[in-house]
Design goal:
Blueprint (H helix, E strand, L loop, with lengths): L2 H17 L4 H8 L3 H8 L7 H11 L12
Length: 72
């Protein structure tokens, strides 16, 4: 993935999470991914595997592709 692709992913992750009024703690509960790791993703310090992307998308009730689609 290019940097711009992962930037879109992390921005969309935060957008969908906050639009559902989910904290990182609650998303962690729903996805089974640690709060620390979710924080690292949102800050651009970690790039999740496709398996984790799928877990995040399911927890946010969106299709995986929506996390890569620019919101503009």
């Amino acid at each position: 993935m290019t940097n711009s692709t992962i930037d879109i992913f992390r921005k969309n992750l935060k957008y969908y999470r906050t639009s559902l009024n989910l904290t990182q703690d609650k998303l962690s509960e729903l996805s089974g991914i640690s709060t620390d790791y979710l924080s690292e993703i949102e800050r651009g310090r970690k790039t999740p595997s496709f398996k984790r992307m799928d877990l995040i998308a399911k927890a946010l009730n969106v299709e995986v592709y929506m996390l890569f689609k620019p919101l503009d």
